[in-house]
Amino acid sequence: MKTYILQRFIQMIIVMVVVMLVSFIIVELPPGDFLTTLREQLTEQNVDPKVIDSTVEMYRARYGLGENWFIRFGKWAWSLMKGDMGYSMQHNRPASELMGERLSLTIWISIATLIFMFVVAVPIGMLSAIKQYSAWDHSFTFLALLGVSVPSFITALVFLLLSVTLLGATTVAGLFSPEYVTAEWSWAKFVDMLKHVWIILFIVGLGDTAGTIRVMRARMLDTLGEPYIDTARMKGLSGAKVYFRHALRVAINPIISSIGLRFPQIISGSTIVAIVLTLPLIGPLLLDALLGEDVYLACSILVVLTLALVIGNFLADLALAWLDPRIRFEN
Amino acid sequence: MNSAPDSEKVLDIRNLQVSFRSIAGATRAVNGVSLDVRSGEIVGLVGESGCGKSVTIRSIVGLVPSPPALFEDGEIWLRTRRGMTETLSLHKNTKALRQIRGRDVSMIFQEPMRSVHPMMTIGKQITEGILEHEVVDPAEAYDRTVEMLDLVGLPNPAAQMNRYAHELSGGMRQRALIALALVCHPQLLLADEPTTALDVTIQAQILELIRDLRDRMRMSVLLITHNMGVVANLADRISVMYLGRIMETGTVEEIFKEPAHPYTHGLLASMPSLFSQPKTRLQSLRGVVPELAMVPKGCVFADRCPHVMPKCDETPPVIELRSDHSAACWLYADVGEPRGAPAVADQPSLPGDRPPLDSPPRVETIPLAGSEPAADTARAAPAGSEVAQLQIESVALHYPILRGLLRRQVGTVRAVDGVDLTIRRGETLGLVGESGCGKTSVGRLVARLVEPTAGHIRFGAGGGLEEITHISQKEMKRVRRSMGMVFQDPLSSLNARMNIRNIVGEPLMLHQLAKGRAVDDRVGELLEMVGLRAAHQSRFPHAFSGGQRQRIAIARALATEPSFLVADEPVSALDVSVQAQILNLLLTLQQQLNLSMLFIAHDIAVVRHVSDRIAVMYLGKIVELGEARAICVRPVHPYTEALLASIPLPMPGLETLREMPKGDLPDPANPPAGCRFHTRCPYSQPVCEREEPPLRPLAGDADHFGACHFQDELQLQGVEEIGELGASQ
Ligand code: SF4
Ligand code: SF4
């Protein structure tokens, strides 16, 4: 078990280093010196030349520009780790400032979506399998098919349309009511967010939830056909014990191991929804940065998202090892 | 509802009828089965696959999902702690059913590998059963579980409590499952093919355990199996089932010595036994078990019965031949005495003597061209026997075991570890051993499907021997023309999307032996040669039964007129009657075409039946090699003796009292030092743990090789030559 965790941990570090290297190469690729560009930009904006000089000098020192590449990489990586995400050309602000709130919101919404998906999909999928071919099964099989096939931005658009035409909403949806959008974080703002967030969870999570229902149903059906379920039944166990104690823990395995993979899906899914619903998430910012060739910003976002993904994967692996003795004993 | 049966009976099934509904309509899987099990008795329910055994036994405890099953008629009375209970009526009352399961009746299943929960410790799984039925504190449940694990012969039972399924071998899992089933002391154990998935030596151990526990725990057992040998060894009474009906019921002696029903005859005659005349046709039943929807009216066996008569259009009554022996056949319709036909009761019976049926056995779907292999040609040395067809020398196949992130090599599986073999022209060499012994790898090495780690393979395609160990794929293609292959699972080895003409004709086209119409003609010829219709060329594999698919695979293997055939477990996936047909076919073809053959199988009785010489393999090495009969009559290696002793003989009373091999097969990645068999060998001496015995000829018999230090001193027991008598009658 210990070696297993250690292995996974080392794997995680390796992935992180590779991602950072790739990001770094992308940052370094564009022709022309970053500092020249910066100076030009600041001059165009009529900034005080002294300030320009000092800003440029500060970046030169911080990123070790002019030194050889691995020192530059080291400095860049180090500053990233300290939370300095670099400077956005497009927005003229440090990247971390731009990301700040959006990043944490994105992560929270993703986690909430995952939980939503789990809580909704696992019981529904399980019951569909237990009551195979029942009305319940047929309706959810149909709904899940619908959920898988309808892209989330359509759901978002439909939702927009409904809220405008039926509910007469004037503000287009968002994460907050208009009065809270710029307000400081407070209890009231939090409550306001909760009121809005479930719709977002629903829209973002619908596709994944529907997919998970299908996976859960299929896995549960497979598991219920296994001979060890007959063994459990022949002990005289009640249905609930057979389903929960014996079948569920085997059937749920692939869903847990797929958590790590769902994370990027949710983020890309939420990006489209966030664009449609104008949500302050990280996805639209990344898209913006990519379109505007804002390399520092884009790479920082990529690195941070990768980190989140890799950690998510690591946690999923741990959960799996804890649940499944076969993995625990492999090493 | 009728009255409860007398209390001597633990189980009484009366006229059970179960149908399955599907879109195609209802088919009746169980059609009026009556069966009882008395106190302390082991009853065997035998029959080929798809005859309704499993549905019958699962109906007792409500394990048949309904729908789609429909229980149309019948009663199942079971002795429970509350007296006789009718369980069919409980199917909707899950609570009452649950109280019976595990407490009054338990069940063990066919696949021990998959019947233990993979993510729960053995201990937890067993104590769960106790806690479900009894009010005991967990500590007591724990102690009782350890005790039970000890009783079923698991070594170090306390340590097993915390182990998981994947840490146990198949045999150990089946022991754990038996412990699980018996921990609440039920009166009846239902065993659904409990040893089918296990190796023969392990099967012997489990059968022994069931018999032993029956006595110790004073329970009854209802055992279903397709293997006549298993019931002969274990059961007190037997019911033979075919297509949802009981054909014959009787004590084990009567069923084997005086079988009355033509189906029972057929089953017994189909089995190659250790006593039958080798290389002779088995008296197989013709045809195959029909689909349930195609069951004949009247007697369900009518389309395969050699004695069928007009009367058989009506359902035959169950006729009492004497107390405790009954058969459902019109042959016995008058006074219960056999009338005319198989006059079986009065024949002198010898063990292994199958009373001849009085009409010539109609064996194949189409009568084969060519003659039956005559017994004496078979016994004489094969023609041109001194010319080698295939020679392998010190061949090894090692696989690295890779672990971890960097796929580090942590060990080596020595699947084949230095094997020498020669197959002469026209000879059949049988290669026998348990799973993991490397026999399949040898077959794959010979066909160059895997690259050997070391050694030489020489093959005589046309003229003399030619080294093929490392020749290129292009050259190998030429060699393969002379080398056919047949595998165990005919379905997966045939491309489902190709029709039969293309499957069988593919080698012809590949080797440019024929084109266009010529392919059709040759394929037609080949199909007829293997007993299929030439007209079936345009069909696809799924339209054929398992036995027919194996015929197709054989036709394909023979398309290029090879002189050599590798047959890897060609019959082990087939029902007994079909197995006999395929063995007959192989024998006939071998004689007709003067084929040399490497015949690989786990069943030494089957191997003995078709082979001239036998090589016995254990953990990657050949431990004994010699003439087929000599090996079976006077084995010189203790492992061969163990294999022979483990085969359940279809001969009640002739129980083997020989010492069974202990324990499990060792891990092939880590074979024991010295003699590889020493961990299980009853004759092991200190020297065996140190020195590895080489394969060397016996003193005074240059054709018989053994790899045991004491092969010249030990007096090992084989099987006697009773078959000579039986066959010569
Ligand atoms: S009833 Fe007729 S067909 Fe059936 S087994 Fe007897 S003789 Fe054969
Ligand atoms: S060498 Fe020793 S351990 Fe090996 S088979 Fe012979 S007696 Fe048994």
Broad CATH class of the domain at 99-279 in chain A: Mainly Alpha
β-strand number of chain B: 24
- Biggest interchain interface, per-side counts: A-B, 26 and 36 residues
Low-confidence stretches of chain A: none
Q: What would you report as the Rg of chain A, rounded to the nearest angstrom?
A: 24 Å
What's the N-to-C terminus distance of chain B? 52 Å
Neighbour order of strands in the largest sheet of chain A:
1-2
The N- to C-terminal Cα distance of chain A equals: 7 Å
Shape of chain B: globular
Beta-strand percent range of chain B: 15-25%
Class by SSE composition of chain A: mainly alpha
CA-atom Rg of chain B in angstroms: 27 Å
Give the overall pLDDT of chain B as a whole number: 82
Summarize the structure in words:
The complex is a heterodimer of chains A (331) and B (729). Chain A is 78% helix and 1% strand. Chain A has helices at 2-28, 34-44, 49-63, 69-81, 95-130, 135-149, 152-165, 187-224, 227-234, 239-251, 253-257, 259-277, 282-291, 295-323, 325-328; strands at residues 87-88, 93-94. In chain A, strands 1-2 form a two-stranded antiparallel sheet. In chain A, a hairpin with a 4-residue loop joins strand 1 and strand 2 (93-94). Chain A is globular and about 85 Å long. By secondary structure, chain B is α/β, with parallel strands linked by helices. In chain B, helix 7 (170-182) runs parallel beside helix 8, helix 8 crosses helix 22 and helix 16 (500-510) packs parallel to helix 18. The interface between A and B is medium-sized, with 26 and 36 residues. Bound molecules: iron/sulfur cluster (2 copies). Residues 262, 299, 301-302, 305, 307-309, 312, 316, 329-331 of chain B line the site of one iron/sulfur cluster.
Describe the structure using short key phrases.
heterodimer; A: 331 residues; mainly alpha; MetI-like fold; two-stranded antiparallel sheet; globular; B: 729 residues; alpha/beta; 8-stranded mixed β-sheet; 29% helix; disordered C terminus; binds iron/sulfur cluster
